[in-house]
Design brief:
Blueprint: H1 5-9, H2 17-31, H3 40-56, H4 59-70, H5 86-92, H6 106-110, H7 118-132, H8 137-144, E1 146-152, H9 154-159, E2 161-172, E3 188-189, E4 198-203, E5 206-211, E6 220-221, E7 234-245, E8 254-257, E9 273-279, E10 286-288, E11 291-299, H10 300-305, E12 307-312, E13 318-323, E14 332-335, E15 341-342, E16 345-346, E17 349-356, H11 363-374
Parallel strand pairs: 1-9, 11-17
Antiparallel strand pairs: 2-7, 3-6, 4-5, 8-9, 10-11, 12-13, 14-17, 15-16
Helix pairs in contact: 2-3, 5-7, 7-8
The protein binds zinc ion (2 copies).
Residues 173, 175-176, 180, 226, 228-229 line the site of one zinc ion (ZN).
Length: 376
């Protein structure tokens, strides 16, 4: 029997992929070689963690591994758990853009220049490995996406329009053109893994590709780091982006800005930005899906006698409503088709009458009110 990968990661065998990812992130930060220089134990532990994660984070490998555990390894010959085979990934996905060669460093985990966002960095990192493993398109996109929130006024949500947002994202470093090396120098091919980023180690009956300990999976060694990006190959920049708000958008809706996020590994492509829309409440209208609710005050005498009132719609139209005689407090009128329109359809507007009872009524008005209350 091989190592217990679940035990190594400190998770249950039934752990979800999120739980596994979380456990791995914590351990990887703790035992990363850059954080434990000269500590061979930490290095071994890091390799072990990476190896465990490379298997149980991949649904197919995890399934094979679980079966192998169940049957004590019988019939499991010929397995090759790919491990952190960033070398292969690099070969498949060569291209322009960010020239990071896979794997990750302490700087990737914690941010080089002091400012960091673990979510982004990991999103990018896992996106890269997902791409290599050909995950489904949506999983691939979401693991590489940046997330943002945008609060808009009620009116803009109804009418739609454009809004400018500031997005902080990574871009290929212009100083080193994304190599991470000081201009005039070049990254050297790692002699240990010959640029593959991983080395093959046989483990009982299966061979495991491990992250190269010499270059931490990069496949290259940078002797003189770029002064701008400190070897990260990327720099953090803030850009203004125009967001098109579709008419009728609701609070909590998510807009996807395709290809506007961080670079995905060295694929030359960028991930998406997912913007969650928050709508400021309106002082007069309340919204439930595409229906709109509002309350209108009405004097008690007018309510009893019957009248006509004018009410605004969310599209700024004024609509006349006929209030029949003997209309009581909280009576609601439905204005069909005057709610919010979006691609899901059109809602209605509901107008609730709040009857206002004046303190000063003349004799005739008192009589009208008494008569109404008696026969209510
Ligand atoms: Zn640079
Ligand atoms: Zn290497």
């Amino acid at each position: 029997m091989s190592k217990d990968y679940y035990h190594i990661l400190g998770v249950e065998e039934s752990a979800s992929s999120d739980q596994i990812k979380k456990a791995y992130r914590e351990l990887a930060k703790k035992y990363h070689p850059d954080a434990n220089r000269g500590n061979a134990q930490a290095e071994d532990r890091f390799k072990e963690i990476s190896e465990a994660y490379s298997v149980v984070s991949d649904p197919q490998k995890r399934k094979q591994y679980d079966q192998m555990r169940k049957y004590g390894g019988l019939g499991a010959g010929g397995f090759n758990f790919g491990g952190f085979d960033f070398g292969k990934y690099r070969q498949h996905t060569g291209g322009a853009g960010r020239k990071r060669t896979g794997g990750f460093s302490f700087e990737d985990l914690f941010g080089g220049g002091g400012s960091f966002d673990l979510g982004d960095i990991f999103g990018d990192l896992f996106g890269g490995s997902h791409a290599g493993r050909q995950q489904s398109q949506s999983a691939y996109q979401d693991s590489t996406a940046l997330f943002s929130e945008l609060t808009i006024p009620f009116e803009l949500a109804i009418q739609g329009g454009r809004q400018i947002i500031n997005v902080t994202r990574e871009e290929a470093c212009k100083t080193c053109k994304g190599t991470g090396a000081k201009p005039g120098t070049k990254p050297e091919t790692c002699p240990s893994c010959k640029g593959q980023g991983s080395i093959s180690v046989s483990q009982g009956f299966f061979a495991v590709n491990r992250t190269c300990p010499n270059c931490y999976g990069r496949g290259k060694l940078i002797r003189d780091v770029c002064p701008t990006c400190h070897g990260k190959s990327q720099v953090r920049t803030t850009k203004k982006l125009a967001v098109t708000i579709p008419a009728g958008i609701d609070d909590g809706a998510k807009l996807r800005l395709r290809g506007q996020g961080n670079p995905i590994g060295n694929t030359g492509k960028n991930g998406d930005i997912v913007v969650t829309i928050r709508v400021t409440p309106h002082r007069f209208f309340k919204r439930d899906k595409n229906n709109v609710y509002c309350e209108v005050p009405l004097d008690i005498i007018r309510a009893i006698k019957g009248t006509k009132i004018r009410v605004k719609t969310v599209y700024n139209k004024k609509i006349e409503i006929k209030i029949p005689p003997r209309t009581g407090n909280k009576k609601t009128f439905r204005l069909k088709g005057l709610g919010i329109t979006n691609k899901k359809g059109t809602g209605d507007q509901f107008v609730t009458i709040n009857v206002i009872r004046r303190t000063k009524l003349n004799d005739e008005e008192k009589k009208i009110v008494d008569e109404f209350e008696k026969n209510k």
